[in-house]
What we know:
The structure holds 2 protein chains of 2 kinds.
Chain A: H1 2-6, H2 17-37, E1 48-54, H3 60-73, E2 77-83, H4 86-96, E3 105-108, H5 110-118, H6 127-133, H7 140-145, E4 147-148, E5 151-152, E6 155-159, E7 164-168, H8 169-174, H9 186-196, E8 198-199, E9 205-207, H10 219-232, E10 235-239, E11 245-248, H11 252-267, H12 278-283, E12 289-292, H13 295-303, E13 309-312, E14 321-323, E15 326-331, H14 338-348, H15 351-361, H16 373-378, H17 383-386, E16 393-395, H18 403-418, H19 427-447
Parallel strand pairs in A: 1-2, 1-3, 14-16
Antiparallel strand pairs in A: 3-15, 4-5, 6-15, 7-12, 7-13, 8-9, 10-11
Helix pairs in contact in A: 10-11, 10-18, 11-19, 18-19
Chain B: H1 8-24, H2 28-62, H3 80-87, H4 89-121, H5 127-139, H6 142-152, H7 159-165, H8 181-206, H9 210-218, H10 223-251, H11 255-260, H12 275-285, H13 289-318
Helix pairs in contact in B: 2-13, 4-8, 4-10, 4-12, 5-8, 8-10, 10-13, 12-13
Amino acid sequence: MSKLLRSGKTGAPGTTRRMFLKQVGAAGLAAAAAPVLRPRVSMAAAPVTLSLWTGYPELEPFYKKAAEEYAKTHSGFKLETLSSQLREMEQKLTAAIPTDTGPDVFDIGRNISLVFADAGLLPPNPPKVMSLVKSKAYHPVVVEYNTWKGQVYGIPFQEGSKPALFYNTKMFTEAGLDPNKPPTTFDELMAAARKLAKKDASGNLVRAGLSLRLSGQGSGVAEKWWYVLHAMGGDIVVQTKSGKWHNRYDNEAGRAALKFYTDAVHKYQVDDTKLQHDAAAFASEQAAMLMREAWVIGELKAKGPKVQYATVAVPRAKRWGGMTQPWSLYVARSTKYPDVAWDFAMFLVSPPMAILHLQMTGWTSMRQDVDWTPILKETPQFKPFLVWDKGRGQYTEPAIPVFDELETKLAERLVTAYADKSLMDKPDGIAKRIKEMAAQTDDLLKKAGLYGTN
Amino acid sequence: MAEPSAAPWVQNSTTLADRICGLLRINRLTLAKYRFCYLGLVPVFVIYWILRLEPIGRTFILSFYDWHLVRPIKPFVGLANYQELLRDENFLLALKNTTLFAVFVVGISVILGLGLAVLLAGQLRFTAAYQAIYFLPVITPMVPMAIAWKWIFDARYGILNYALSWFGVRPIGWLTSPDVAMWAIIIMSVWKVLGYNMVLLLVGLKSIPAVYYEAASIDGAAGWKMFRRITLPLLKPILLFVVVISTINAYNVFTQVYVMTTGSQAAPGAPLRVLVFDIYQNGFQFFKMGYASAEAVVLTLIVLALTLIQLRVIRMDGE
């Protein structure tokens, strides 16, 4: 080569050294100028196919529709989705994320994402995403929920656990209650439930005044109990000034919350384990009231279109608040297209998509900067889920990896306690049960190295 | 011209084969047969190693580690997981519940299976049809059956309570009441395995030579005496097999418990906590694989010990 250049010739016939240098120089200039000179194209102009996994199969049509919308401004964009039941998805992700064989984008609860974040398997949000998450679009409690050791992970996507009180307006009228004045305190709730409960000639309860979560297993049982516990002034765990944790229900609030359930089942018999429960019971008018999330509205449209009902915020006692449990979107560290993946995740939570999300799935968005007027005009029952009253606080699960285990094990003891008739009007018995549950909670915190009272 | 000598590897091979034949005192043809058999078994053994032996060995090793499924650091903790098990209320409850379940399911399904087998071994019409009917639950998948039984047990709409209502029985919360939930699972599980036990015992009954019964009847034996003195002793090997297999299966109960405790209309968790469910929960819900492995090792040892005891007791009795 050097010999050729020295002789003034290159390999190509008729090319002189001067010409060769000119060509190289021109090519270098063109390469350097390319980013400036090329026409502005969208981020995903090159064909990009992202994979998205979800533990909620009902979200799949929304994701596909959103991908179609996204592709309109990002040519070449495609989305492949995979859905399964939540527990199976948790297991799939738990095997896939540590081995970098998972999807580009996934939605999951914090019980899983926290474990990933703790193990350094999840990338924290990039600056562009952070500016969205820390904007006024989200409540500070929600941002805090997604924070682990000072870093924020994921984009809050949908509300996983915000409850409201569903009540059957027709039954209210029949029972002599004013449907425009729903219960606002737990005392009023119990009084209304007693009026609404219905028994047959043999004395068997055939309609629950208030349908409670009394059976089954899993953390959901404890979560529902927490609605009452929080109003009574307690919490499942609380953090101390030194950053440690301990139970906060071995107290008057915890005893009052368990008494509320014991009274409902055994003393006033407003609910019975033998009855049908949950949204299905409300849809078939076997329950007059129910505390549940917004997805019940969609369920009622499909399975109980004739049910006349309204919704209101969960009642208060010493405190007034609503649980929030953001379900977030995460981008895997193994994605080949992190910019596109984050951009698409941000698109999924944008206000137009938040409305589409609610319309298609019944799940509500975590954003508080969306104009919900058209939705509320069409379905006013969404109001307590979308519009937050002044004075109504928000509370959420603590960011500790052991919380799911702690809540699941508490749930098991609660179910046993609910079925125990001997606890009726027995404050000592209730106190003993609560003490045992609290001891287990503290023990699990100790094993995780998180327990402390100072 | 000199004879071409054999290649060195051929000579070595010949020597090795001869040596092996000499060592095992077999001829070369038998050695070739052995070689063929073992080579044929290699793929099966490799699959068995990968799917069975390796996971069992790994489970045993994992049980000595604080092996969290996700966390990168998995420290060696020696016997700490086993010590923890002894203090774990959930594990002890699961052990108690599983034993209770196994005792009743094995006891009821073997006794009922034997009764049915005796009935069907007699001169009954449509025996094959009855066998097929009783065997049907064995071949039906567990998950849909568990869901169907969840409906059968439903306190308000279930067919079982409906049938009981004809006799004036008030609705029973089969799955939702902690006192009866375990019995509901036992009933469903007996229904599922009864046909399997019956078929095995029926085969055993039919293999007993008629000559023993003829001799006994000449001696004046009949009915219960003949059953006790002839049928039961000669049925012991099959009976032993049925009891051992049923016990192992009963200790591994999981699917029906998992299905029937899921959802708001489901059975309570605590009264139905069984060992495999506890292992599943610790391993796949709380990701404590080391701890779950320790539980799995304990379960294996329990089943192994019970099997050995059963084998010994029935053999001693036979001797």
